[in-house]
Structures are given as C-alpha cells and as structure tokens.
Amino acid sequence: MNVAKNILFQTVTRRLERNSFYIFGAFITVTTFILNKPRMRFLRSILKHSLKLSPVSYQHMSKLIHLKDICGFFFVLISLVYSLMEMHFSLLRKWAIVYLNLVMYQMDMLYMNCVCVLKACFKQINDSLTHIREVAMNGEPYILNDTGYKQRNQFLLIEIEAVKKQHQAVSEAVHTLETIFSLQLITMAVMTFTQITFNLYFIITQMKSSISISDYEKSIYYSYSILITAYHLIKIMLIVWACETGKRQAMEIAITVHEIFNSTSNEQIKYELRLFSLQLMHHKNTFSIKGLNMDASLLTSIAGGVTTYLLLLIQFLFAINICDKKSPMSMEDSV
C-alpha cells in the first residue's frame, strides 16, 4: 500500500523510500507517545545516577551532550529547510516531514545521552575500585599495625559494599533502557539501512541518467541525497560509539575486581569480591536490543547489507534498460 499516494513519483524505488520513511517515522512517533510515562520514570532514575557523579565528570559529560545535541539539531533543521524549500509539496506535508525527522532525532539522541550517563556511572565505579585497589596494595599487615590493619579492612569492606550496590542500580538502569528503547532502536536501525541504501542508489542512477537537467536542479538533487545519507550514517556511528565505549567501560570493572582480589590476603574482602564477581557475571551490561548488539558489529552488518542490496538494485536497473532500450531511464525525483 502506498501511504504517500498523493505524491507524484516517477520510480518504484522512490515510492519505496518515501513510504518506508513515513511508516517508520509514524511508528517511532506513536511508540514515543505510548511509552511516555515509563520513559519519564526512567529519566528520573537516570537523574539520580547522574547526581552521584563527580563535578568534573558531570561537567565534561554535560558539555559533550549539549554540544552534540545543539549542533545536531541545527544540522537537521537547516538540512530540512534547505531541501523542502525546493520541493513542491503542500505546507501540511512539509510540516509532517519536519516533525517526523525532529521526533526521530530527539529520541535517538535521548537514547545516546542515557548511554553516556550510564557510561560515566560505570567509569565512576571503576575509579572507586581503582582507589580500593591502591589502598589494598599499600596497606598490608607488615606495613600497618594490627589496629590500623583492621580499620583498613573494615573501610574496604564498606567501600566494596557501596560499589556493589551502585553497580547493581546502574545495571538495572541498563536493562530498563533496553526495554524502553527497544522498538525505537530496531526501527531506527532498519530505517538507517533503507535510507542509506536508497539514497546511494538515487545518486548512482542520477549520475547515469540520460535526462538532462540544469546544474541547479542537479545540485539540489545531489545535496538532498548526500545530506540524508550523511545524517543517518553519522547518527548510527555516534550511537554505536556511545554503546561500544559504554560496554568497554563496564567490562573494565571485572578486570579491576580481579586485580583487587589478587592484591589482598583478607578472606572477608575476598569473599565480598567473589560475590561482586558473581554479580558481574549476571549483568553483562552490553547495550543490545532484542538480540541486536549496538556495537561495531552492527555497522559491519549495515555496511554489508547496503552493499548487497545496492548491487541488487543496480542489477535490476540494468535489466530494465536491456529489456526496454527504447525507453530512457527516468530521472529520480527528489522529495
């Protein structure tokens, strides 16, 4: 079914590209409104975790998030205005395109911001464990007297217990994040794949098109397709970068725990560290959505899929030209 049947398209591929945009965009928008209350509860819990960060870490993270969001917002807005000014669409349709793009952008950046906060929390946990390791290594019985040694061990036990509770809370937040944003991220990944594939195809077909158009029209067409491709590519790379670095930060915690275990001879501390290790085994803290890992493997899969389907589309195009040599290849209309 062509949900954009009122728009005149010259090719099937352009219809598929536009229909996929409207379907995926509408789905993400509806999902955003349905999950509004759970998302707000989750954001309140994220706020509590962020308040526990050190001032330096909090300021660094805030600068990164604000810079990314502001630059990205203006990039999306300017790109949309530049492209839609040249399109002969109704005002309602233009507003719908702008609205869907901004909703999808805001939700993707919200997910990335939450991942950045959780990554900062994992880093703080690892820093606390590093401090515990230094205390454990510099306070063996032959250095401290008996009273100081007992006080040191009691302090370490309290610190380890506090870090365990913090790690448990952050791990639960990671699980909640995956639950709330699962549908949105799966749709985003599929939409990224389709948009990059189709727009690269449009650029190639226009380069091989026999229809002559003015340089101005050609620049508008190329600019629109290149901006869409660049936007989706940069967005998925930023999200994958945040998830990949967050996963690595969480994995470093297990390494630090084992280093502390090897640095102490106290049985109580070792017992608490064993419990902590079991907790780490139960919480993988990999940012995955319904089996879809948000890491470098996702970029590899998208790149492979784009290459495969792009070659298929080009083969179909050549087959059509061979079967109907009299009809020139129609130029793709930009939307």
UniProtKB/TrEMBL annotation:
The chain crosses the membrane at residues 20-36, 67-85, 185-204, 224-243, 298-320. GO terms for biological process: chemosensory behavior; male courtship behavior; sensory perception of taste; signal transduction. GO terms for cellular component: axon; dendrite; neuronal cell body; plasma membrane. Its main location: membrane. It holds the Pfam family 7tm_7. Keywords: Cell membrane, Membrane, Receptor, Transducer, Transmembrane, Transmembrane helix. Gustatory receptor which mediates acceptance or avoidance behavior, depending on its substrates. Belongs to the insect chemoreceptor superfamily. Gustatory receptor (GR) family. This is Gustatory receptor.
